[in-house]
Amino acid sequence: xxxxxxxxxxxxxxxxxxxxxxxxxxxxxxxKVRRQVFEVLRFMVENPGRLLDYNEMLHEVWDDAPxxxxxxxxxxxxxxxxxxxxxxxxxxxxxxxYYLEMPESEHFMxxxxxxxxxxxxxxxxxxxxxxxxxxxxxxxxxxxxxALAASYLELGCFCIRLSRDVHTLFLHAYQHAVALxxxxxxxxxxxxxxxxxxxxxxxxxxxxxLRVHRARPNITEVHVxxxxxxxxxxxxxxxxxxxxxxxxxxPLLPSLAFAKPRLLLFRRDIDAAAACAKQAVDLYPxxxxxxxxxxxxxxxxxxxxxxxxxxxxxxTIAPDVAWFAAGEAICLVKQGRSREALGILxxxxxxxxxxxxxxxxxxxxxxxxxxxxxxxxxxxRAYSERSPMLAWLDFxxxxxxxxxxxxxxxxxxxxxxxxxxx
Length: 422
Hints:
This protein is mainly α. It has 20 helices and six strands. The strands form two sheets. The protein has a four-stranded antiparallel beta sheet, with helices on one face. Strand 2 (15-18) and strand 3 (23-26) form a beta hairpin. The longest helix has 19 residues, at 163-181. It starts with 8 loop residues before the first strand and ends in a 6-residue tail after the last helix.
């Protein structure tokens, strides 16, 4: 097994082959595979591109047992069926043998998936470049467009570009993918997320998520997004039922680690949010969102210097996310260090001259500094820019002090009606 990683896990396209434990996964979901079929796959992925003849197959897979060529061919056919639309990677040279050949686009897909798992804006930017390159190659798989669409959704969550621009890019990739492969469960999931993230259409998003769940109940990600949609609808208990379902199915799911601490905090269950966020940091120490969530929970749990440290770690990992700096500044205000917070505010306002700065978190910082009129001006700007963050206006613990102002209710009503005009 020369060249096999120490973990014994080999990634090919959307598949992960666990050599040591004889398990096969596609997009994180385990596939049932007969042992002999797995052994053929193992042998081929260990020797990509090399022609494997009948005698080698017998020796490596069947331990030199007297097996007919027909049995070998049937086993290869079963493997091709298991790989679905990727079955064409298995090539046959009549009279000579078999080999595994992935198209050039898969190199860019593999690189893109690597960058995407960094869970940072810069990682997503590199992932988008890789997936985009994959779409331009002859014979590129439609999943390159699907991966591109999903990456734009994740980029939208970071609020580092104007929402309508990211939405347009998402729709372009999504529509290409649908045209090439139809409306797959993965694409339906992407569309459902876009409905609540960019279009504020919670009802339609819920229906689409439920359709995906009926079609593919093993897609754990659906539970997390249903939880977010239910929470935004005020159906808090149902949201946490969905989170428990996700946790039961896959406690290591990245989106669960990002979403659960925030929903606990927005439910005002601060100690539980802090404990949950700490677990997420331990699981994903290089993901900036885990540190930001932990910082927010600590900030409301005790307001100590540890919260400030976590804000700064998040900002160091992802310096291009302006609202991480805004969170740090709000923490400084709570610690009586308003002058430093004003310095961060001035820097963010300067940055806005050349780059997009999400207005929602700037509004929260202005409110913390006692600049309420300016805070509402920023909220109006967030409304005009269709910031995805506005969806959380009714729940965000940092917005609590704004709710007694009569301007808040009027803004909230307009935000609620956004789905009708997006």
